[in-house]
Amino acid sequence: GARRDDSSRHDWRGHRRDGDARPDDDALNDRCRRQASLLSGSGAELKSQRRITMEYRRLGRTGLKVSTICLGTMQFGWSSGEDVAHRVMSRAVELGCNFFDTADVYSRWIEGNPGGVSETIIGNWLQKTSARREDLIIATKVRGAMSDDVNDRGLSRHHIMNAVENSLRRL
User: Fold this and answer.
1) Between vectors from CA 6 to CA 5 and to CA 9, what angle results, nearest 5°?
2) I need a surface site. Which of 23, 48, 86, 91 has the fewest CB within 10 A?
3) What's the angle, vertex CA 145, arms to CA 122 and CA 84, rounded to 5?
4) Do residues 18 and 27 make contact, with C-beta atoms less than 8 angstroms apart?
5) Contacts of 51 by beta carbon, 8 Å cutoff, 6+ apart
6) Residue 33: in which H helix or E strand, if any?
7) How far is residue 168's CA from residue 102's CA, in Å, rounded to a whole number?
8) Is 106 tagged catalytic?
9) Alpha-carbon distance 162 to 171, whole Å?
10) Which entry of 106, 119, 121, 166 is annotated as an active-site residue?
11) Rounded distance, CA 78 to CA 119, Å?
């Protein structure tokens, strides 16, 4: 018999539409593999494929348009070195990604690591490439504890303002 197309059973996150909020592992893994192959492929491989067009969506009521693929940077400075991170970011921008996710606490859990390393790597990459900071939406998170100081965590105005200043300095 005819094979049924199961793609309509899942939303864009790979979650099943039948009310089960858990992602379907196969659908989610397929989507991740497709995205990873796009980011890791060479220019020659891309030319042999059909033209890839990035889609953009409005980010809430901000007026910003961001790529539907947001590049997560948690691994930068932890399980991937700076040179690999630079190649990944360059490739992502080449493919139209304008939305990067980072956090000040990324890699802070590693002994001796002060945190904010992924932000520093993004900043170093921006200095070395022709990518313009103005063309990117870099989202960071600020709630996590950056030290043992009781005010260096949470969502107080004091912590948010300090975290933003520190993040901008690293970038």
Assistant:
1) 135
2) 48
3) 25
4) no
5) none
6) helix 25-40
7) 12
8) yes
9) 14
10) 106
11) 12
Question: Rounded to whole angstroms, how far apart are CA atoms 136 and 162?
Answer: 22
* Residues of the chain under the 70 pLDDT cut: 1-52
At residue 9, the pLDDT reads 54
Query: Tokens 């996590």 — which residue?
Result: 144
- DSSP category for residue 76: B
Residue 106 corresponds to which tokens in the numbers above? 């990324």
* CA pair distance 97, 67, nearest whole angstrom: 5
Backbone φ and ψ for 71, nearest 5 degrees, come out as -80, 110
CA dist 14 to 19, 20, 31, 53, Å?
A: 12, 11, 7, 21
What tokens does 85 get?
Answer: 């991170």
Round the CA-based radius of gyration of the chain to a whole number and report it: 19
Q: What is the pLDDT of residues 51-100, one digit of tens each?
A: 568 999 999 999 999 999 999 998 998 888 999 999 999 999 999 999 99
Give the model's pLDDT for residue 107. 75
Residue type, 31: R
Per-residue tokens: 140: 């960071």
